């Protein structure tokens, strides 16, 4: 996406992947906010039952994934705002630009965006490894993933 040529009069194919990327990211952010709110409202008792080290690690992993997705989305949005390019949510709603164009802040948030994505990839890899571990052990954790009650 980043390697595509900058939009000019006769070349504009960089715009679509960027808009799609931003739309999918912002949609994800909205879904995450709703999921976290639901979890906070409904799962208070479950959090109080967490005792073993493994359960604590699983909780940290759970929150790390949400925090990192949120950070990736927010830093992406801020970087985009400071770059001066507009964000039109699914080509329907004009998202407000955060502030005036600023190269320095664009670079700062772009770097934070990139590093939060790498961190997210790392936590996702750990999460998948843990799921495989439980799958091979054939314990009841995988069943719980699909039926948490
Ligand atoms: C979880 C959601 C997201 C993921 C995983 C993600 C991932 C990425 C990755 C891997 C890059 C390339 C970074 C690089 O190599 O420098 C990138 C670039 C970019 N992303 Fe995202 N992104 C997400 C959400 C968003 C959102 C919500 C926006 C804006 C509304 C956005 C705007 C941008 C922009 C403008 C770039 C271009 C380079 C930059 O300025 O960082 N991203 N994104």
Describe the structure.
It is a single chain. The protein has a domain at 15-118. 70% of the residues lie in helices and 4% in strands. The chain is built from five helices and two strands; from the N terminus they run H-H-H-E-E-H-H. The chain has helices spanning 15-42, 44-48, 53-83, 103-137, 141-146, and strands spanning 87-89, 93-95. A hairpin with a 3-residue loop joins strand 1 (87-89) and strand 2 (93-95). Helix 1 (15-42) runs antiparallel to helix 3 and helix 3 (53-83) runs antiparallel to helix 4. Residues 2, 21-22, 25-26, 28, 69, 72-73, 76-77, 79-80, 87, 110, 113-114, 117 line the site of protoporphyrin IX containing FE.
- The percentage of residues in β strands lies in under 5%
Please describe the biggest sheet, giving its number of strands, its sense, and whether it closes into a barrel: 2 strands, antiparallel
Low-pLDDT stretches: none
Structure ligands: protoporphyrin IX containing FE
How far apart lie the N and C ends?
41 Å
Overall spatial form: elongated
Average pLDDT, to the nearest integer?
A: 88
Assembly status: single chain
Q: What is the CA-based Rg, rounded?
A: 19 Å
Order of helices and strands: HHHEEHH
Tally of helical runs: 5
User: What order do the strands of the largest sheet run in, or round the barrel if closed?
Assistant: 1-2
Helix content: over 70%
- The beta-strand count equals 2
Class based on secondary structure composition and strand pairing? mainly alpha
């Amino acid at each position: 996406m980043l390697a595509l040529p900058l939009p000019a009069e006769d070349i504009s194919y960089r715009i679509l992947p960027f808009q799609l990327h931003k739309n999918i990211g912002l949609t994800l952010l909205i879904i995450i906010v709703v999921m976290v709110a639901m979890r906070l409202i409904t799962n208070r008792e479950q959090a109080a039952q967490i005792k073993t080290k493994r359960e604590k690690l699983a909780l940290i992993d759970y929150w790390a994934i949400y925090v990192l997705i949120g950070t990736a989305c927010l830093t992406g949005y801020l970087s985009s705002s400071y770059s001066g390019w507009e964000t039109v949510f699914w080509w329907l709603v004009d998202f407000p630009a955060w502030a005036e164009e600023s190269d320095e802040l664009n670079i700062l948030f772009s770097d934070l965006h990139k590093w939060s994505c790498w961190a997210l990839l790392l936590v996702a890899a750990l999460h998948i490894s843990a799921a495989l571990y439980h799958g091979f052990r054939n314990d009841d954790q995988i069943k719980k993933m699909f039926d948490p009650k």
